[in-house]
Amino acid sequence: MPSPSPSPSLLAAAGAAGFVLDLCAFLEARDVARLRRAARLFSGARVRHLRVRNGLVDGALLAAHRSLLLLTVELKRCRLQADALPAIGRALSAMGALASCDLGGCRLGQLVLPAGWTQQGRGSRTIYRHEDGRRQAEHPGEPEGAVAVAGALPAMGALARLAVDNNRLGAEGARRIAAALPECR
Fold first, then answer.
1. What is the largest CA-CA distance in the chain?
2. What domains can be seen in the chain, in order of their start residue?
């Protein structure tokens, strides 16, 4: 049974006081529409912390929080939708005051098929085919989540803590994030 929505006045009072915006504390984690409504209610408020755990996060939810002056973002074990992977980079780039960012277990290392590619089969029999006729056994995609986070790091001057544990980044994803860390000033 979904938990009841908090009243707009309660949300506004909490935001004005700078409380933690813990969306999963009062919203059903899979109800993206309710999460977006809560983000709109907080727009312009003095919310400093965003925490979503075990939730479903899409690009619209992340975009809704770009206007907030967040100091910490915790999206622990969230299932990032495909549109959220590039959106997370855009949202984080706009959060220059962000001091702590926990993206642990968010599937940042998931490989996304580029346009024109399809997957056939499973496991060791997986073949990737391109619409131009090419075939290959190796996944042709890249870890878009890791690429997006790496692209956002140079704009995150206040960042003191970045957690990307349990993301199956792979060598390429880890290399991209590690290469961008020195640019984060």
1. 59
2. 8-113+142-183 (3.80.10.10)
